[in-house]
Design a protein that fits this description.
Chain lengths: 476, 492
């Protein structure tokens, strides 16, 4: 059994800088350095070490100047972490620019180093002209006596998290996608592992979650103690994940609170309906949300050719899917929607007339969504094929009412088409000449060629040749 | 010394001029930048570029990650105040790859390839037809699909990213497919895809894609989609049987691609490693410089986007013993956002689209649309690096001034490869050593130098750094002194 434990730190993105003297340096730093060293010198896993509270930065001014001029490679230790990366030289920067950057960096993020001027850089250029290529770290560590400061554990905190490695009880938990390297909002920290006195010690180091060492644990209940030191001013949050056989990477505990996603409401224009393709909570991965005029909206699965839900008001809030890498990957109606059909197929073919929608003997039908066009008044017409039929589904809002009218033109593509059954509504009761779902949707149906029947609580319409069906969905 | 001055002086190092066609509302308020233009009608428009298409009548289409396609008129003009924008389509699910064909715009999106047509001539699509939606999609945000322009057979090549970049929770994840434009064909082509950033063709019409550092990718690289090849990440292998493919290779963990290739030749070695951290972090769009010299001295070579570093880089490819391999250089830098799509427009105008939502970039604007033109001044640069049986031939864009290129001291080399492992990226370099240049012979025409190297290693990146003592007849030093050549095979 293989268990992987990860911690991820979320750190705030902005520190107050409050030093305007090095304004140029800040801009230059942002352009030339921040992609790797971070906007605030926090470093980036796998790319560059932090610059905050670093002897490399705030020690002898020749150190930082030499590193910018020639680059640096080889093992170094900063804040208890080891790095072995290559920083290239920065030939695009002139002496004034290097001085501005170095002065800025030496006076920020907990560094307290003197300012550097262009003459000093110029002199360093002369003094180091024999340096052939990138510095190897010992070349600077020895002469400048760069000894890593002991990492002070002055803010030691601890938390305990109970968890289980009984994977049978964890299966089916919603997986959370692995966060990748390369910044973004989350900077994951790597966890390595070693054993000491029979206990598992997790050792924090920079890196990415997928490259962690793994700890094997037997089935059972465990408690993890986490001790961590935190020196930066920004808040730190831990996320714990677990993965195991046949189980995706999952949170061990509730994920930490995140910044709220922005509210981004989209609506159709006066001229045209808005058809928006996305993953929908109720419709599935292949769903079209459709916003019609008069704030009448519905969602339609292009996998099952199924009208799934109806709602009135604002069309969609897409803030979640348009924020970051997409947080909350599914879209849903901003106000409660009424179910028209439950998940699953709404078109089936049966060997004989079915008594129930879930009767055995149904045959799998070939279904293909073909696309949509907008008519001159801006309403959408969907086209799709099911078995031996093609469908043209025209959606509109009638004059003087706030309901959904659907005109479905069905054509058979074969001389002897196999009969189809269409489940138009789920959870339904007959009410006069209409049908009403327990969710509160009333359907007025005009089907000249065949009559619907209630199979249990499902309203099912048989189709055996070309016809046109008009359905009006009315709800409060 | 003002910050703005510094900005400009950094940019003007390049013999290429970049011009920003669209920036955010906040920047547009800066009157000092006369080239900045806004998308009209709505300052809320967010043009997070996912795809670019060159249209007739000097128009350019930009697809946004939010699902719109915008058509830009006037993008080639000197007077950018006349640029206008028209929203052609909306409601698409993250289009990453668009092209124009016979009056329609095609888009490869999250769940389908779509064909959009303006039926009434008002500049807005009225018809949105599904060309193909036969692949799986699980609802995960990371199941990106990057689509190509059509190849010579009319096929659109699509690379289907893994779920969350690490799993294959829906059918065809981790596979490259070819789809016909009539929707009838879906041809599984290669397994082994991880997390692509772009797809495109070289001058011979062979398809390549960029795959990002991560699981089973020690470094980001450019890979050749040779039909039937296995591209390295075995996560999607479970779909092989259902797709009518033979069982796919299961590489050993903690190995190298060369070692695994030696055991099973179906395992593709990257055509060109794009050394992580040295060249870039997130390679993206791929195009061939098809301008026959109108974009400078590198006709026929590949240009590739780099999202994190906000750059466009250059790749020279050659086919040696049936394998593509070659060299990468840095080229254009200082773009305003993270470059994803690039396209070569008319008049050798390079268009680059940017976005950094979710993935930080050196260019700090949230999105960008920029054009780059060659100023006509040829940089002194390594033009091509070709492998020989015992070293390399380096050709230049301009004749060498003196014999500095014959001096062995003016070359520095190191060589390495990466771990090929199930974990995320390579932990350090593998097999690193410092090859020595033992002989350097300048060609009679002084346009190239042939170097002999004491040790070359298959599957290794060979980094050559030229000294600034190597100069051209017009006294220029080499623009980019570092080149990274991946050797898969040695020449005869």
């Amino acid at each position: 059994m293989k268990t992987t434990l990860l911690t991820t730190a979320l750190s705030g993105l902005f520190l107050s800088l409050g030093n305007l003297a090095a304004e140029d340096g800040k801009q230059l730093y942002t352009i030339a350095c921040s992609a790797c060293h971070g906007a605030n010198g926090e470093g980036r896993a796998g790319a560059a070490p932090p610059l905050s509270q670093s002897q490399w930065v705030s020690g002898d001014p020749k150190i930082i100047t030499s590193v910018i001029l020639h680059g640096l490679q080889g093992p170094i230790k900063i804040h208890g972490d080891s790095y072995d990366l290559v920083m290239p030289s920065q030939p695009a920067l002139n002496d004034e620019q290097i001085a501005a950057i170095a002065t800025y960096v030496r006076d920020n993020w907990g560094n307290k180093g003197s300012a550097i001027d262009a003459d000093f850089v110029k002199q360093t250029r002369v003094d180091t002209k024999d340096q052939n290529g990138v510095y190897n770290s010992p070349q600077l560590i020895k002469p400048y006596n760069i000894t890593p400061k002991a990492f002070k554990l002055n803010n030691l905190l601890s938390s305990s998290y109970p968890f289980t490695t009984d994977f049978d009880t964890l299966k089916g938990k919603t997986p959370d996608a692995i966060e990748e390297e390369k910044g973004g909002l989350v900077h994951p920290l790597q966890v390595g592992s070693q054993k000491e006195d029979g206990k598992v010690i997790l050792e924090r180091s920079k890196g990415t979650p997928a490259s962690v060492g793994s700890i094997k644990l037997p089935k059972g209940q465990f408690e993890i103690d986490i001790f961590y030191a935190h020196e930066a001013k920004t808040p730190i949050l831990f996320k714990l994940f677990i993965s195991g056989p046949e189980m995706n990477l999952s949170y061990l505990h509730s994920p930490p609170a995140k910044k709220k996603a922005p509210k981004i409401i989209i609506n159709p224009t006066a001229e045209r309906a808005l058809v928006h393709r996305n993953f929908f909570v109720k419709g599935g991965e292949r769903t079209l949300g459709v916003g019609l005029s008069k704030k009448v909206n519905f969602s339609f699965s292009t996998q099952h050719m199924r009208l799934t839900e109806l709602w009135k008001g604002e069309f969609l809030n897409v803030g979640k899917t348009w924020d970051g890498r997409a947080r909350g990957q599914l879209t849903q109606s901003p106000s409660p929607s009424l179910a028209v059909n439950k998940a699953g197929a709404v078109f089936k073919s049966f060997n004989s007339s079915p008594k129930k929608w879930n009767d055995k003997g149904s045959k799998k039908l070939k279904q293909q969504f073909k696309g949509y066009v907008f008519d001159p008044s801006g309403d959408p017409i969907f086209t799709y094929s099911i078995g031996d039929y093609t469908f043209e589904d025209h959606f509109s809002v009638p004059e003087g009412k706030q309901s959904l009218v659907r005109k479905t033109t069905i054509k058979s593509t074969s001389d002897s088409p196999a009969p189809l059954y269409w489940k138009i509504l789920s959870s339904v009761k007959k009410k006069g000449t209409s049908f009403r779902t327990n969710s509160g949707v009333t359907l007025n149906l005009e089907s000249p060629a065949s009559k619907p029947s209630l199979l249990g609580k499902d309203l099912v319409l048989p189709i055996s040749h070309s016809t046109t069906i008009t359905s009006e969905y009315v709800w409060k | 010394m003002s910050g703005n001055k510094n900005l400009k002086s950094l940019k003007l190092v390049s013999p290429y001029l970049a011009l920003s066609l669209c920036v955010t509302a906040a920047s547009a308020q800066d009157d000092s930048n006369k080239n900045v233009l806004l998308i009209p009608d709505d300052d809320k428009v967010v043009l997070e570029a996912g795809g670019l298409a060159i249209l007739p009548d000097k128009k350019v289409a930009v697809s946004s990650r939010r699902g719109d396609i915008w058509v830009c008129t006037g993008a080639y003009e000197e007077d950018l105040s006349k640029v206008t924008w028209q929203r052609f389509a909306t409601g698409l699910h993250e289009p990453l790859g668009i092209f124009y064909k016979d009056g329609s715009i095609f888009a490869t999106t999250r769940s389908e390839i779509k064909k959009m047509t303006d039926l009434d001539g008002d500049g807005v699509a009225d018809s949105y037809m599904t060309i193909n939606d036969s692949w799986g999609t699980s609802g995960d945000y990371h199941e990106y699909n990057f689509g190509s322009t059509p190849d010579k057979n009319g096929h659109i090549w699509v690379v289907h990213c893994l779920t969350g970049s690490s799993k294959a929770l829906s059918n065809s994840r981790g596979w490259a497919f070819r789809y016909s434009m009539d929707g009838k064909e879906a041809i599984p082509t290669c397994a082994g895809i991880r997390s692509p950033g772009g797809i495109g063709f070289n001058a011979e019409g062979e398809c390549f894609y960029t795959d990002n550092q991560g699981l089973w990718n020690g470094s980001s690289s450019l890979k050749w989609l040779k039909p039937g090849n296995f591209q390295g990440n075995p996560t999607g292998n479970k779909y092989a049987k259902g797709l009518g493919f033979p069982e796919q290779p299961q590489p050993n963990d903690n190995s190298t691609t060369q070692a695994e290739y030696d055991k099973d030749n179906r395992i593709a070695r990257p055509a060109v490693f794009l050394p992580h951290g040295l060249v870039g972090q997130s390679p993206t769009g791929i195009i061939t410089d098809s301008t026959e010299g109108k974009f400078g001295a590198f006709a026929g070579q590949l240009l590739i986007g780099e999202q994190t570093q906000s750059e466009v880089q250059r790749v020279f490819l050659e086919k040696v013993k049936g394998q593509y391999q070659g060299a990468v250089w840095k080229m254009l830098e200082g773009f305003e956002s993270g470059i994803v799509p690039i396209k070569m427009g008319e008049d050798a105008t390079l268009f680059a689209g940017g976005t950094n939502r979710g993935w930080a970039s050196k260019g700090h604007k949230p999105f960008s649309f920029e054009r780059v033109r060659w100023t006509g001044k040829t940089p002194f640069e390594m033009k091509e690096v070709k492998v020989t049986n015992d070293g390399f031939t380096i050709s230049f864009t301009e004749a060498l001034k003196d014999n500095a290129a014959a001096d062995l001291k003016n070359y520095k080399m190191n060589a390495w490869t990466y771990q090929y492992r199930s974990g995320y990226g390579s932990k350090g370099l593998v097999g690193e050593y410092k090859p020595k240049v033992t002989k350097a012979t300048i060609a009679e025409d002084k346009m190239s130098v042939r170097i002999v190297v004491d040790k070359l290693t298959l599957g290794h990146v060979h980094h050559i750094k030229l000294s600034d003592k190597i100069t051209s007849v017009s006294d220029k030093t080499v623009w980019h002194k570092d080149v990274y050549y991946t050797i898969n095979e040695l020449a005869e």
